[in-house]
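Methods: example folding runs. The two proteins below were folded one after another, and each record is reproduced exactly as written to the output file, sequence line first and structure-token line second.
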Amino acid sequence: MNLSLKSLLPPHDLGWNRVRTACALPECHNKLLTKYVPGSRTGLFVGENWYCSPDCFALGSRNTLASLASGCVVEMPRSPRLSLGLALVSKGYLSEDQYRSAVMRSERRGESLETALRECGFTNEKQLAAARAAQWGYPALAQELGGLTIETDLPLSLLRAHRAAPIHDSPKSKRLVLGFVDRVEHGLLQSIEQITGCRAEPCFITPAEFAEQMERVTAMPNYEEACIDEPGTAAQMGRTLGGWAVEIGAREAAFAKCNAFLWTRMLGKRGTVDVIFALKRVPAANRIKVSTAVPEVTVSLG
């Protein structure tokens, strides 16, 4: 049987510069055979954009990373329907005299009302969580949802930074319930929906419930998270992503801005990785140990 070069190419003549045309990186210098020769790299998608190699992906991600890093997430200001103190009074957890006493103490000592209420012994954490839920119009943790072990592919660094714990996860219905301690972080909810396609619903929990639930959270198989405290420039972040793309044989990637973090998810032949770039220094309590063995990819257009 006679084989010719044409037998390795697709049925239609796409031209020698087809990869350069298809690759989302305008400066791409790869040739047609890098896509069609058996065993060659098949590239990866970012939305509808296709990059022919981790090198081109690393270079092409620079603009996206720079745009997200420089952009500001602006949440429309929302005032609660009533103050926390009045929510406690309306639910019968606090008398009007106790409320006035706590307010005077907080003003005199320059402390928050919650601190004053707790130190005076007027309320407990459960009552504060229920009042905060009523204050902002979200539910408190339902009894039947508490204490569940959760296997998740959400980055723990983002959850800890926003004091949010996954309470219930239903992959079949693509529904996730997140319990927040302080306030509902809409930036986190939006980025979860953007990256995972899962509908994230908030509720309020106590600090103790948050700590206990995070102990029950485990990572899904073949899932990794890398939190980068000093991400550097957009070009350096792109090289970091290129290194991870090679490591897992990435085929798809997605980007999201989550308040002071950039979240990049890559799915590949060897698993899923979330690379979290902290645009601000991450407090030690919110850090997690991650592998630092993946090298940056060296990219070249020559």
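Second run, written to the same file directly after the first:
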Amino acid sequence: MDNKYQIYLISDSTGETLDRIFLALKAQFKNFDYKIHSYSFTRTENQIMKILDISKKQKNSIILYTIVDNQLAKFLGQESNKIKIPCFGILGDLIISFSKLLNQKALHVPSGQYALNEEYYNRIDAIQFTMNHDDGNLVNDIEKSDIILLGVSRTGKTPTSIYLANRGFRTSNIPLVNESSIPEILKRKPKISCVVGLTTEPQRLYEIRKNRMNILKETEKTSYTNLDKIKKEVENAKKTFKKYKWPMIDITRKSVEETAASVIKIHEIFKSNG
């Protein structure tokens, strides 16, 4: 009898969150023979149906997923149930579910690097939220953010956001092209969350952008790498931060870790004044 489980990891993003969760989960069971099938950037019902067509042909299929769209997640659950394939969202109580499914008690020991406790789940939730709110995405629920980072292009918003997410902060980041690129809800309620502006010296920004364009093999001259326009862009961003009374951090000589530490201090002050 084949006791190998076919584990389908379905994510609407990179799938890194699922990989980490499953690494922690599998360590809780001694006798667990499995094969992983990973599907990242799954964002349509058609994609899900194709995966389910494959999984239903296998014995002992199990689906784990991270899908931020509630309707799509519900669709996956309903369709999986129709073909009787166990399907779990990662923020469910996976140890209990798998314990029942495998008919064995969990070891309940830390899995080396990761532990499935409340703090870990909060961190995973923060990572998923942050990945889905990168670069100005999903601003309609930006008020759910613990921290919102604003800044012109190449001021370290994404790496800082990811670092903060790994510390458990649900972080959104928004590229600041001009004041009109700021979501209306932030203009109406500037203190709806802890908002921090990231800035840097124009010359340093020019060098970073120029290197970026060289990597992309872009040779056409644009305002993106025009030093005078970069100076104006940075100055306008600073004026915007001051207008809405958002604290700003100059990242010119800071590492991502140092920038994140400064953001966390600002967040602590924001919470204490809240």
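Comment on the second run: Confidence is low (pLDDT under 50) at residues 110-114.
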